[in-house]
Every structure is written in structure tokens, then in C-alpha cells.
């Protein structure tokens, strides 16, 4: 068995065992909060794939917009920190405070200020910005001092150092942060949809299913969210490996 097959076999085996345990607990012990796999399949067929596709598309559209906005703000802020001396400490303090704000507490305020879909996009952007900001700054500052001194010796200022040395050094960290930001963007969008003012989305559908005590539909929506988020995460991971193959090689060598 190849190494790739071995890596794939273990998660598959865990998934099969988990599904079997889920089925046993739901049917044998009569746990109503867990809908058995046959009930989930029956509910999925009754709802129709279009129902889940409609809500998933709405959520991931908002998550994608929040992903772009949040990471764009993070990259711009990281650029300013790296080229303007003395602002890093203050910027990071503000970023930490923003990251520590509980979404449940600020959610209603965000809803009042932005309303509707904008609130979901804002919360999504808020969750993804901090990891990218920290990763890019840390990656850029890990550049070789000898390379920085070489650029400085040829008359290069902070912008030249950033363009020639620090940007390439920060690329693996930035791509790793973008990969991690994918599920965070989806979480922010779903929480924003829970706040109301939106007619479609996985968060809206989950809230409705919870209100109607539709356990099977609620689990199906959660599983669809996990599946599509995992797919997006894997796409980001593949892109990271393709764009920075030397980073993976360095990890293997280490």
C-alpha cells in the first residue's frame, strides 16, 4: 500500500467507524438528538439537493466576499506595519482586541449598523483578518538578515526590502494563513446569517430547522457545511503546496 493510500485509508476508516457508532447510538439507544444515517438520507431526498445547494451557495458567496475583504485589509495593514516604523505595537494591540470580541455580543450591534447580508460579510472578514495579519508580519520579519543587509548595501529602502526579500519569505506563512482562514470565513458568515435579516443561507436554514425541531434537516445542513468547507480547505491546501513547493521540502528536511 502506497503512502498516499495509507494517508487516505485512516480518515476513511475513522469516518466509517464514526458513522457506525452514530447509527448505533441513534437507533439502539433512541437518542432523538441524533438522526440515524437512513433518516438523514430520507430527509435529504425529501428536501431535494436544490434546497441545500441554494443555501450553501448563498453562505459561501458571503464567506468568499468576507474572505477577500478580511484578507485584503490584513495584507494592507501588514504592508503598512512593515514599511512604517513604530506602528506595529499599536496595530497589533487593536488587532488582538478586535479578535477577542465575542461574536455573540457584537453580533446584534453589527446587525444594527450594517444589517442583512453585510453583517454576515463583516463577521466573516473579522474572523479571517487576524490570522493573516499575524502570519504575514511574522513571516516577513523572519527574512534572513544577510539578505536584508545586501539589499540595504545596494541602497534599497524598506520598500525594496519588502519587495525583494520579505514578500517571498512571507509567502508560505501567508498561504498557510489563507488556508486556515477558509473555515473561519464560513463560520463568520453562518453566525451573521443567524442574526436574521437574510432570507437564504445555511445559517438561516439551520435556525429555521431548529425552530421547527427538524433534527434530520439540521444535521444535514451541518454536514453540508462541513463537506463544502472541507472541500474549499483542500483546494486552498493544494494551491499552497503548488505555489510554495520549497516550503514543504524544507519541512521534510527538518
Q: Which key features would you list for this structure?
A:
254 residues; mainly alpha; elongated; disordered C terminus; ABC transporter permease; membrane
Percent helix, as a range, is over 70%
Query: Which regions are unreliable across 5 or more consecutive residues at pLDDT < 50?
Result: 249-254
Q: What shape does the CA trace take? A: elongated
Q: Could you say which structural class the secondary elements and strand pairing correspond to? A: mainly alpha
Largest sheet: none
> What is the radius of gyration computed over CA atoms, rounded to a whole number of angstroms?
22 Å
Distance between the termini: 25 Å
Counting H and I runs of at least 4 residues, what is the number of helices?
A: 11
Total beta strand runs: 0
Mean pLDDT: 80
Q: What fraction strand?
A: under 5%
The secondary-structure element order is HHHHHHHHHHH
In short:
By secondary structure, the protein is mainly α. Helix content is 85%, strand content 0%.
Q: If you had to describe this structure to a student in words, what would you say it looks like?
A:
Helices cover 85% and strands 0% of the residues. The C terminus is likely disordered. It is elongated. It has 254 residues and is mainly alpha-helical. It is a multi-pass membrane protein. It comes from Herbiconiux moechotypicola.
Amino acid at each position: 500500500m502506497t503512502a498516499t493510500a495509507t494517508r487516505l485509508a485512516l480518515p476513511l476508516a475513522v469516518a466509517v467507524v464514526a458513522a457506525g457508532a452514530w447509527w448505533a447510538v441513534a437507533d439502539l439507544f433512541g437518542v432523538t438528538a441524533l438522526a440515524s444515517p437512513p433518516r438523514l438520507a430520507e430527509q435529504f431526498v425529501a428536501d431535494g439537493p436544490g434546497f441545500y445547494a441554494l443555501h450553501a451557495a448563498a453562505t459561501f458567496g458571503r464567506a468568499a466576499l468576507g474572505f477577500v475583504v478580511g484578507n485584503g485589509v490584513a495584507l494592507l495593514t501588514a504592508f503598512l506595519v512593515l514599511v512604517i516604523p513604530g506602528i506595529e505595537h499599536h496595530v497589533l494591540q487593536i488587532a488582538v482586541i478586535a479578535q477577542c470580541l465575542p461574536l455573540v455580543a457584537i453580533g446584534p450591534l453589527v446587525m444594527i449598523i450594517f444589517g442583512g447580508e453585510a453583517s454576515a460579510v463583516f463577521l466573516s472578514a473579522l474572523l479571517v483578518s487576524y490570522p493573516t495579519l499575524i502570519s504575514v508580519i511574522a513571516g516577513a520579519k523572519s527574512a534572513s538578515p544577510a539578505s536584508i543587509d545586501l539589499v540595504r548595501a545596494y541602497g534599497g529602502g524598506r520598500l525594496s526590502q519588502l519587495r525583494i526579500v520579505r514578500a517571498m519569505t512571507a509567502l508560505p506563512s501567508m498561504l498557510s494563513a489563507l488556508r486556515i482562514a477558509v473555515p473561519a470565513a464560513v463560520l463568520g458568515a453562518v453566525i451573521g446569517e443567524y442574526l436574521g435579516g437574510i432570507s437564504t443561507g445555511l445559517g438561516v436554514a439551520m435556525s429555521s430547522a431548529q425552530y421547527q425541531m427538524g433534527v434530520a434537516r439540521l444535521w444535514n445542513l451541518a454536514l453540508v457545511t462541513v463537506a463544502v468547507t472541507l472541500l474549499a480547505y483542500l483546494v486552498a491546501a493544494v494551491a499552497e503546496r503548488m505555489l510554495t513547493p520549497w516550503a514543504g521540502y524544507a519541512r521534510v528536511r527538518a
